[in-house]
C-alpha cells in the first residue's frame, strides 16, 4: 500500500479525491479510527501539515478533540468548500447519459452519488434517478423491464445497449 501525500495546494477536486482514496485504502485495510488518524497525518506535507498543526490545536482548545471523524470534517471544511459540493450536487441533479456509453454514465453517476446521500442511501431513489437520466430509447426499455435495484437497472441498460 502506497498512499498518496497531500500538500495542501491541490484543487478542491483533488482534495476530495485524495480524501476519498485514503478512506478507501483504510477501509480495505480495515484500520481502526485511531490508526487512521495517526497514518493520515503522516501523509500531510507542506501547507497541509502546517494547517493540521493549527487545526488540531483548535480542536483540542475547543473541546472537540482530535479524532478520525474530526480530522475528516475539518479537512473537508478547509479544502472542500460548500460551493464545490453544491456544484457536484447540481451536476448529479442534471446528469444525463447524452453521448456517454451506459458504463461511462454509470461510473459518473456512481461517483456523484457521494454528494447526494439522500439519494445514495435509498435504493429506489437511486435506481429511479439513474433510469431517468438514460437516453430516451434506453429509458423506455429499462423502465419496461421494471428493475428492482440500481444494480439491476445498470445491468439491464448495459445489456440493452
UniProtKB/TrEMBL annotation:
Residues in Retrotransposon gag domain copies: 39-136
Superkingdom of origin organism: Eukaryota
UniProt protein name: Retrotransposon gag domain-containing protein
